[in-house]
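Predict the 3D structure for this chain.
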Amino acid sequence: MTKSFHKKKIYIVQARIPEYRVFFFKNIKKNFNVRILSCKNKADKIFKEKRFLYKLKLVNIFGNFIWLKNIPYKKLKNNYLIINGNLRILNNYLFFFLKYFFNFKLIWWGHLKSTRPAPFFDKIRLKIINLFADRMILYTKKEFDEAKKNKLFKIKYNYLGNTIDQRKIVNINRKKQITNKKTRFLFVGRLRIKPSTLIEEAIKIFNKVDKNRYKFTIIGSGDAKQKIQDLIKSNNLSKNIEIINSSYNENFLSKYFYKSDFFLYPGYIGLSLVHAFYYSLPVITHNNRYMHAPEFSYFKNNYNGYFYEHKNFKSLEKIINKALSTNKKKINQLRRNSKKTIKNLTIENMINRFNKIDFEKI
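Done. Predicted structure below.
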């Protein structure tokens, strides 16, 4: 490795640094000068390491389009830039052209396809990647295999096996936890109006079910929370359905994961699925993979959970009733399969895949 190459920096632009990504960012390319540029949000924990630079400021332009202020464009010269491949980040369009003036290598880190089916825009996105990116980093092996099969990229590409920081999962003896006389369902996530988590639809179904058969715990906050609380109250379901403020405390969350039978996530799911599997908790969600994040590829119907037909709430009702009728033997098999699914989906493996990317040859 040449001396000049040692001096090169890797800049990673992130609107924010999620806590589940911190260990990853701390451990990638330790022989490089890595800088993660992000915004400083009040709710975020600030990590006091030279890798983390909280210099950016997010500005909402219109709709879902954003602009990140204070990016040190000139410092990118002759270095490497990893961007979040979201075309709603308007800075990306500037990067596409600046790379030719500042001679930096552009690495696109993102999904293979949009999370809501948009074939026309996916084609445009693919052309942009092939035209401007020097390397592509995909989230999952499923995406990698699809790209390879259909010869989608003219550039080299890798996948990381996107996952959570599983080191934080709290291990409890499950045998001591299972005392359920009722089937217990759990939801952990943001309570959004858009895209909807469809919790309201699940509550309407639970209202038809014998109240002696189930308990449903909802852990989350968001703009849909009040509407969900009102629905629970108006249907006199407070004894069966509880709603708890969002928490990122794994010790707190673990108690609910371990005493539940199914992780119910009717809407768009991503890393929440991996989180559930690490607690050996089978998942219930819909079957339209194009309306999920790439991590949905880890899901297999009747193996590590049940799916219902997308937008068909009669189908969701059928699956909830199927879950209520699932015996302990079958639930335990689903649990074992959930655990098997994430056997190699560790944060360490994700780091290793990133570290194997030969930046010198980009």
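The two ends are 14 Å apart (CA to CA).
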